[in-house]
Amino acid sequence: MKLNPLPIDAILPQLVQTLGHAACTVLRAPPGAGKTTRVPPALLDSGLAGAGQIVLLEPRRVAARSAAARISFERGAPLGAETGYRVRFESRAGAATRIIAMTQGVFLRMLHDDPFLERVGVVIFDEFHERQLDADVGLAMVRRVQREFRPELKLVVMSATLDTAGLSDYLDHCPVIESSGRMHPVAVSYLPRHVSGPIAPLVIEALEQLLTETPGDVLVFLPGVGEIRRAAEALRPIAAQHDLAVMQLYGDLPLDQQQRVLVPLAQRKVVLATNVAETSITIDGVTGVVDSGLARTLRFEPGVGLNRLELGRISQASAEQRAGRAGRTAPGTCLRLWTAAEQRLLAAEEVPEILRVDLAAAALQLACWGETELADFGWLQSPPPASIEQAIALLGQLGAVVDRRPTELGRLMARLPVHPRLARLLVEGARLGQPRRAALAAALLSERDPFRRAPGGRRTSQHRSASDVLDRVTALEDFERRAGPDSDLAPLDTGAARATLRVRDQLLRLLEGEEPSRDAQACDPDEAVLRALLVAYPDRVARRREPAGRRALLVGGRGVRLADESAVGEADLFVCVDIEEVGQGEALVRQASAIERDWLPADRVTSGVDVQFDSQRERVIGWRRTRYADLVISEAPTSIPPDVDPGPILAAAILDRFGDGWPLSEDESAFLARVELLRGAMPELELPDIASRLIAAWLPELCAGQVSVADVRKQSLLGVWKSHFTALQLQAIDRHAPERLQVPSGSFVALRYELGKPPILAVRIQEVFGWRQTPRIAGQRVRVLLHLLAPNMRPQQITDDLESFWTNTYSQVRKDLRRQYPKHAWPEDPWTAQPEHRPRSNRRS
Ligand code: ADP
Ligand code: MG
């Protein structure tokens, strides 16, 4: 057979020659150059693989199948003979197969059986620019095999666009071969203004424009099968009008239909494709591209704790690739269904998956392969340490690893082509005698949701299972029996429903040989699914806050709320299978599944007494609590155990509530002021500093042995404070900052101390006749501030200079008050007058 020439042909001899002496080579060429179809046969024919296979790794099932088909076709051999493929659930290869295309995920699982790739001569990573997690993992694994065990193994990394320098550095500065390929100019235009809503009408408009502007076929990029089907429907009228062949291209399409898209037709083709057409599959004759700007890419969805396909905007790099598809054979046109302003907001390129997705599956694969030190594994780009820890923690909870080493269960799980959670679900379902239902649950959780909208409303009694997952399982089983599009639960997308059932059957086949355990008979078929879900989501157990309420608390302390449509109406405990983040507050649980308390694994259930402050009763009390991880599943008040001192707990609670606002009594304030005054005036006393120590410092002593705030209120800080002074110091305080002062009348009058203020002596004028000067304390260093009181006990004068009062002011005061209080003494000469001691009187007399 005479092959049509492709740009890559020119560099194939160079590639073969380079690989003759180099262990690795990077090959860069634009999409459509012929990398996928021509490189593997060239390497086979060169003998570089020896007797081994050439493994061609593709990021997608559709690419693996179509590559194998095309290579077989060009080699004039049946598919599955010299060239074959292996993808999830499907294989066309035999003993004679030399070139085998496979997905990266299948390759990782293959490494379990053939850890040193002994049957392989060359490994080719195709489309490496997509940087899927499995590609990064696989590349690091192959590197290690090559370096440590198989120096003769050849490695080729191919890509359409890539920073090839970094990759070459990683591969010991290996040679880079480039084939530029010829590209024609592509005119790119944007929407004049932002349009929201369904894509189909925009596609029609764009298509009508392109049909007049370009002569060739048109490629339309849409995010998924649903959008493709709807667009195909909407395009019918103009397809008829313009005699167009509207075709679909996506990953799940059967091989023959996929191949039909690639065959040239007399009619003009309009191909509605997912991003498989971005670089994986090249359709000849395209001169027009319509780009929705959307794609479903794998993302870690914290809500379901799984990696799932999620709708999002593509990057600028990807938009450029898509536009380039119009200019392969002639100048082309690309219409982008977004505005030029929006274009500037797109990410420059995709973040590699290894930096953003859940690593549990990869960590399990690596652990089973013998690599447990994920942090220093020879990565092209290391994953975030937190992701590694999270992955290992989850695998531990699933029972897949212990001390980072795989358990027997873990090895079993690693062979199943689903996330470890779902693998665990499958294994548990099989053990409980319900592999089929567990497989359906796993298929529902990993594949496209066949329910058109959230179930609810039309729930009938037979769907009252207290599990949203089980409800869906039952609804799909009903669908399978009746094959009708409507379930009792919610309208079904029959295509997706059938696909889900197919995945179930495929998973089921992989489970064959998993024997039910002996106690399986005892387990009700519904209960088996619920129990298996708990085992798959051990970190997602929640407890309802109040009976029949919708709010609950999740392990780890997060608050969640059950969606209205959830069937889990009463159960105290349930697992949250699908959690939707809604803003900052409580997350919304879309799918939950009830569990029984005694299903919880005993080794994670603990029981004990917590002694804690009850803020309502303002006292420390005991609670006997049973917990699953950190989630309280039952509790009752109990007495404080004798070995627990409630004091520190009380102190912490008081500090928390009052901070430094704990009120000091008058006595306490006065003592504090006296000490401070003396610390300032008489440093030689070396009194301890009690003022600058906050209440926090004294609380533990104050609260020792106490149980309630009321108890503490009855305590005084004075005792605590005084215990920090020596007896001599306390005597000195009494002497130098006395509580009372004797005045000339003989009375002992109280001194008022306030922090930062001079001491105040409030005394009737008549009692201090004879005092010439202001009295002083603190070793004569601090003057007292006199509040000189009239007979009605109101301050007549405030002074710290008594001498000046007598000399300058007293005569006027005497004049004013004499008539008012004639019974009191108002001598002309206060220095020599007899002070008088009289009970207080404010009568006018
Ligand atoms: P690359 O991998 O470099 O992107 P491919 O090897 O996929 O390039 O494709 C090279 C050429 O072979 C393209 O022009 C493509 O259209 C053509 N081709 C590949 N598969 C088929 C097929 N099944 N039918 C028709 N043409 C095909
Ligand atoms: Mg290719």
3D structure, described in words:
The protein contains 26 helices and 33 strands. It is α/β, with parallel strands linked by helices and 845 residues long. It has an 8-stranded mixed β-sheet, sandwiched between helices. The longest helix has 18 residues, at 225-242. The radius of gyration is 42 Å and the shape is elongated. Residues 457-463 and 840-845 have low confidence and may be disordered. The protein binds adenosine-5'-diphosphate (ADP) and magnesium ion. Adenosine-5'-diphosphate binds next to α2, α3 and α9.
Give a summary of the structure in a few sentences.
With 845 residues, the chain is an alpha/beta fold. The site of magnesium ion has 4 residues, from α2.
What hetero molecules are bound to the protein chains? adenosine-5'-diphosphate, magnesium ion
Strand content: 15-25%
| Average of per-residue pLDDT values | 89
**Count of individual beta strands:** 33
Q: What is the overall number of helices?
A: 26
Q: Kindly name the structural category.
A: alpha/beta
Low-confidence stretches: 457-463, 840-845
Instruction: Provide the spatial order of strands within the biggest beta sheet.
Output: 4-3-5-2-6-7-1-8
- Termini separation comes to 138 Å
Q: What percent of residues adopt helix (DSSP H or I)?
A: 25-40%
Give the oligomer, counting copies of the same chain as homo and different chains as hetero: single chain
Largest sheet: 8 strands, mixed
Radius of gyration over C-alpha positions, nearest whole angstrom? 42 Å
- Overall spatial form: elongated
